[in-house]
Amino acid sequence: MPSLLLRNARIGLGGPIRNVLISDGRIAEVATEVTTGMTTGTPAESVDVAGGTLLPGLWDAHVHMLQWAQTRRRVDVSGARTAREAVELVVPHEGFTTGYGFRDGLWPDAPHKSLLEAAAPGRPIVLLSNDLHTGWFSPAALASIGRGEHETGVLREHECYEAMAALPLPPERELDRWVAEATTAAAARGVVGVLDFEFADNVTDWSRRVAEQRVDVRVACSIPKDRLEEAVGRGLRTGEPVAGSGGLLEVGPVKIFVDGSLNTRTAYCDDPYPGTGARGLLETPPEELAGTMGLAWAHGLRPAVHAIGDLATSIALDAFERVGCPGRIEHAQLLRPGDFARFARPGLVAGVQPAHAPDDREVAELHWPGRTGRAFAYAGLLAAGATLELGSDAPVAPLDPWDGVAAAVARTDDERAPWHPEQAISLPDALAAAARGRRGIRAGDPADLVITAGEPAAADPAALRGVEVLGTLLGGRWTYRQHG
Prior knowledge:
Layout: E1 4-11, E2 17-23, E3 26-31, E4 45-48, E5 53-56, E6 58-63, H1 65-71, E7 75-76, H2 83-90, E8 97-102, H3 113-119, E9 125-129, E10 134-137, H4 139-144, E11 154-156, H5 158-166, H6 172-187, E12 191-196, H7 202-212, E13 218-224, H8 228-234, E14 249-257, H9 286-298, E15 303-307, H10 310-323, E16 327-331, E17 348-352, H11 356-367, H12 378-383, E18 387-390, H13 401-410, H14 427-433, E19 449-452, H15 461-465, E20 469-474, E21 477-481
Parallel strand pairs: 1-4, 1-5, 6-12, 7-8, 8-9, 12-13, 13-14, 14-15, 15-16, 16-17, 17-18
Antiparallel strand pairs: 1-2, 2-3, 5-19, 9-10, 10-11, 19-20, 20-21
Helix pairs in contact: 1-6, 9-10
């Protein structure tokens, strides 16, 4: 690969101005004057960064890439304050309409198929909730997937996943093009890699994409629980490169659900939801969870356990201690006070999504009253010795790591005062958690890098969220360059 010299780059937050030589996909040298004659000779390309800040490239450690690619083409109903407002947003569109982003946890009225039918008789309409756990179908949309007799048209959890998977899709090649375009858009925000939790055969799907499309990020390809035995039979092992992918793909973890979500009141909690006797939904009982994790680990596959409620997260921690394996707990939105220290176990990663905190603060206060001091508790986790990795859960939040970093640092995303500011973390810690733990620019490291305009450390939260990316490099290759 041709060498590249980045001149006058600020090395990290508040760092010195240096020249950086990149060769063979890695950082070859960081110096005041790069001694190119001692390395690769005259670089093939020399770029004056003019004081831009050079940082490790960013990862989104929790995405659903196919759903995100589709969402970029769906009707946005996230601003709806009632079910009727959501209907009004999709009615002006024509044909089979899919909307995305509704949050019914605070609505005064309830979604129902009759509302869609009254506004657009006979038209197939599907609305997907912001957290991906609820689908709201019109009668015609229900009929299209053989569920015409469903009583309400509101499908939650596994019923929702199955219904969404049954919907007709555009041709595979077109979907692949949408996904590839989404990776290019991500690269424009400094993203060099994603952990894809799509409910699919991700190794096969991404292998096809990198063979036929330009893919501008690295991808860790997760394995859904129901494909575990198939993955074992194929000899897949977490962390190993996927053959034929040119280094872009690696095998990811096995995804297992313990509970549901906050907005659907299916997160599994110690305390019942106000006004009900329900504590949420236990998707995988403790014995089954430990058995599945043990089977995965016995074949070199690390588990990634979805746990949102405090009881669900405690069950997940119990299982990691019982099996004795490394892996991930995804979300960990509400924690028991005594469980923070348990996240310090070696090899355990807390995959968290800071943008959810400002998005869900009102819902959390409503459904988790008196407990929100230990919700989205990133400072508490870091203080306890936990390893954090930041994600968006796109399409639940946009695939933009700066949005999550700003939310982690500021604990707000608008004019509202910071929510539980004691749980804010520092910008260096947030950026490290968004870069798979990388904290510096050092010779020998992979040249997966992002260059920002100015100094992010000096930016206020709003400016940090919209930080200007000048360029992104993946193994020394430009995946995004603002000018040229």
